[in-house]
């Protein structure tokens, strides 16, 4: 697990250094593979092959295929390659995940992007990931709270560390289950509103 989990609603903004993302997922998978490898391979007759298989679990590229429901904008972009994030690609992703009400753009947490990538890949979806809410400015967050929309006072959306998402070819319950299994942050289930909230804060579910 990335961190211990709690059953509570969305918490406040944390520093980017505290976020959890795909790197943690692959590290856990690699450690699990290496730990189980000797037993699984009956004495590990081919230890180098086992190590190579573990390393191959980490892809050489990470990409996002996303659609913003409010603006109608879409994007398919490789944002990480050969161990590095690609600045131009990140800028495009930041733009499409902006606060659509104010048009404010901030750098989205790369841990969140990695989490979205992991969810999309793990579910095997053939559709673009639908973004209902990405970055949310303090002004927008305050307005939504005043309108009784149930958003947290210190929403992680304001720090670029959260997103409300859905996938047209997958059920919300499947999406929630996948996000929970990854154990990389908060997961909120909102079937009436048609989305699942994911973030890279502390691990908790509601």
Which CATH class?
A: Alpha Beta
Poorly predicted spans:
1-18, 32-55
Shape: globular
Q: Tally the helices.
A: 6
Strand order of the largest sheet: 1-9-7-8-6-5-2-3-4
CATH topology: Muramoyl-pentapeptide Carboxypeptidase, domain 2
Strand content: 15-25%
Mean pLDDT comes to 81
Largest sheet, in brief, is:
9 strands, mixed
Distance between the termini: 18 Å
Structural class: alpha/beta
Please state the second-level CATH architecture: 2-Layer Sandwich
Radius of gyration from the CA trace? 18 Å
Q: How many structural units, i.e. domains?
A: 1
Helix content: 25-40%
Q: What oligomeric state do these chains adopt?
A: single chain
Instruction: List how many beta strands DSSP finds.
Output: 9
What is the N-to-C order of secondary-structure elements (H for helix, E for strand)? EHHEEEHHEHEHEEE
List the helices and strands and how they pair.
Blueprint: E1 5-6, H1 22-40, H2 47-55, E2 61-68, E3 74-81, E4 84-85, H3 87-96, H4 110-123, E5 129-133, H5 138-146, E6 162-166, H6 172-182, E7 186-190, E8 195-199, E9 203-205
Parallel strand pairs: 1-9, 2-5, 7-9
Antiparallel strand pairs: 2-3, 3-4, 5-6, 6-8, 7-8
Verbal overview:
It is a single chain. With 206 residues, the protein is of the alpha/beta class. Helix content is 35%, strand content 21%. The protein contains six helices and nine strands; from the N terminus they run βααβββααβαβαβββ. It has helices at residues 22-40, 47-55, 87-96, 110-123, 138-146, 172-182; strands spanning 5-6, 61-68, 74-81, 84-85, 129-133, 162-166, 186-190, 195-199, 203-205. A nine-stranded mixed β-sheet has the order 1-9-7-8-6-5-2-3-4. A hairpin with a 4-residue loop joins strand 7 (186-190) and strand 8. Helix 1 (22-40) runs antiparallel to helix 2 (47-55) and helix 4 crosses helix 6. The longest helix has 19 residues, at 22-40.
